[in-house]
Amino acid sequence: MDFFYAPGTCAQGIHLLLEEIGVPFKPHAVAFAEREQYGEAYRKLNPKSKVPVLVLDDGEVLTELPAIAFYLSQAYPAAKLLPSDLRSQVRALSLLEYITATVHMRGFTRIFRADTFNATDPEAAKKDGRAVVEAGFANLSASLGEQDYLLGDFSIADAGLFFLEWWGRTRAKLSLPANLDAHYERMLTRPAVQRMMAREKASP
Ligand SMILES: N[C@@H](CCC(=O)N[C@@H](CS)C(=O)NCC(=O)O)C(=O)O
Question: Quick check: pTM over 0.90?
Fold first, then answer.
């Protein structure tokens, strides 16, 4: 398998799942600083110019984080990335959808790329983004409750929550609800997360 990512992006979620599975994969760091994702070669791979992308051994190209995470959970059942009962699977997908479509795309993207949302008043876009992220962390905190992981045991949903927590703490300098801080610290003790962080040269 070939895995396309850029360090410090949402692709961390898939990166850490690949490490959890322990399957051999070839990592390709896409040079965002050089806008490689908009170049011809990358757009042939993914016309959406986004990471993460996973290319399977038969050449099929998978995009969109929740879909790739679901694929990995079903293709590698021994890694136990998703419980087998339907209700838990739906809960995990619902959480991942909220993490990526709302908290990431409507929240963090406004903070990190404020000028693309409001060129005349980027601070207003950042403020809107922070409100979405704060509501997002409050909702995810309620979902986590007193459990160690979002579904009780580790699952694909935690891989999504991790990159939000990392962005919140390190890039956006936000304070997280106490149980999300504890979840983040717990994730950092997982060898797979440590291997992902080392490859991405990401500091906790
Ligand atoms: N909906 C996509 C979003 C992926 C996404 O926005 N990736 C960002 C990195 S966090 C990206 O590749 N951005 C490149 C760009 O917009 O130029 C998913 O969940 O996979």
Answer: yes
Find out whether the beta carbon of 49 lies less than 6 Å from any atom of ligand 1. Answer: yes
Both tokens assigned to 19: 């490490």
Provide the pLDDT for residue 85: 96
Secondary-structure class of domain 86-190 per CATH: mainly alpha
In the chain, DSSP finds a helix count (H) and a strand count (E) of: 10, 4
Q: Is the C-beta atom of 50 inside 6 A of ligand 1?
A: yes
Indicate which residue's Cα is closest to atom 11 of ligand 1.
Answer: 50
Q: What's the CATH class of domain 2-80?
A: alpha beta
Per-residue pLDDT band for 195 (boundaries 50, 70, 90) equals: very high
Query: What are the sequence ranges of the domains in the chain?
Result: 2-80, 86-190
Contacts for 190-199: CB closer than 8 Å, 24+ residues apart: 190/16, 190/20, 190/154, 191/19, 192/16, 192/17, 192/19, 192/20, 192/22, 193/16, 193/19, 193/162, 195/19, 196/12, 196/15, 196/16, 196/19, 199/15, 199/27
Query: CB of 151 closer than 6 A to ligand 1?
Result: no
Tell me which residue has its CA closest to atom 15 in ligand 1: 50
